[in-house]
Structure formats: C-alpha cells, structure tokens
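User: quick one, fold this
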Amino acid sequence: MKKIFLLYVAASFAVISNLYAEATLEEITPKDTKIEVEPIQAPAQNIIPAQEQARASIDEYTLGADDVIEIIVRRHPEFSDKFIVNKDERIQYKFVGDIDVSGLTKSQLQKKITGILSQYIVDPDVNITILDYKSKVFYVIGEVGRPGKYYMMGNTVNVREAVVASGLPTMSAAMRKCRLTKPSSDGKPKHININIYEILYGGDLRNNINMQPGDILYVPTTMMAKVMRVISPVSAPISTAVSTGKAVVSAGTMP
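Assistant:
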C-alpha cells in the first residue's frame, strides 16, 4: 500500500512539474497563435451617473437585423404593429412597404416614420419602442459563472458589465491574465490583456474598456486549477483505496 501511495505522489509531482514548465502565456493562448498585444491607455472619462449612462446607451442604440420594435401611431391603430428587422435590416411596414432601418436610432426612425405617414394622415403622432435587442452580441468564455453569448442593449458594453452579466469569475479564474479578442475579417485579430481583478476588486478602471459587437472576453484557468483537474481523477480511487485498506487493481490485472 505504501508503495502505491508513493508512486501516486511521484506521478502527481511529475504532472505538476510538467504544467509548471509551460509558459504563462500558454495558459491563455492556444498553441501556434500569434498575438499582437496593444498597450492600454487610460481614456479621459467624464463621470456620469449609472442610470443616465444606461439611458444614453439605449437612446444611441442603432437598429440592426433581428431586433424587434413596436410602432404605435396614436389614433391610427391600422398603422401600429410589432416588427422584426430582417436580414436586410428592413421592416415590412403595411400600407407603405419596406423601410430601411439600418444604423438608425429609435428617435431617427421615429422621425423617418413620421415623415412617411405625413403623406397619408395629418400630424401623425408616432412612438417607437425597442422590444428585443438581438442585433449586437458579445461573448464571455472560460472561468465565469455563465459563459456564453450575450446581447447588447447599446452599441458597446464595458468589460466590467460583461463580466458581471456572465456571473462573475469562478474560484479557478486567473483574473489577472484575461484576454479581450477583437475579431477581424483579414485574419489579424487584435488581442488585449485585461486585468479584471483590478477592475472588479481594486477599483482601477483604466482597463475597463468598451467591447464592440462580436468581441470575445476570455477568462483563463489558474495553473493550480489545471493541476487539480488532471490529478483529481487519479487521486479519487487511490484515496478510497488508502482509506479502506484495499489494493488498487488496474484493468487486466489478476487480483
């Protein structure tokens, strides 16, 4: 039994040494991936109350494919309805035809609809509501509570809001070694190192940069968590054997 236990300890140390030999960058970067890291400069920011900032973000939201809007024309229910923006970024407005809404804010679309309906009714009173924000997404993957795809209620979302929306980092997260990836169609994505520990717990917002639609925030795993995940499947049966005093028999070995 002692011999088995010593072999297990030796194997564990071998695994730990192997993982420790890996470069720190490899923990957050796939092999054969060339990274161009941009330095972060602290932007000059005006302090805006959170509620006003959220309201401004929604008011500046530009419509795109898959967004759902509701148009209400007071005293004229025949012109009121809910619409899904199609892949061509248009809505099919009855009695009028297709209307291009690409890149328009809610207020801009309201003025456009008002101008169109002025040809049919006198002084149209138009109100537009965005019911579902579906055209702009970002991704948070890795060691967070709820990794996955998230929809923006504005044209951008900062790193802190993205991490909070995804359920905050787990106990296994290497928060000081996160990476923000900005995809590119030319095959040269940009990668930015992010220290979300300082953003969340240190109050340093210099790295709290804005994420654009399609951006990916990766929260890597600590080296210790990797080690534990490797040796846990091995340690479980051996620990059981040591506690019960039974020998561990490998597959195909006679008892």
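User: anything notable?
Assistant: Residues 62-132 form a domain with the wza like fold fold (CATH 3.30.1950.10).
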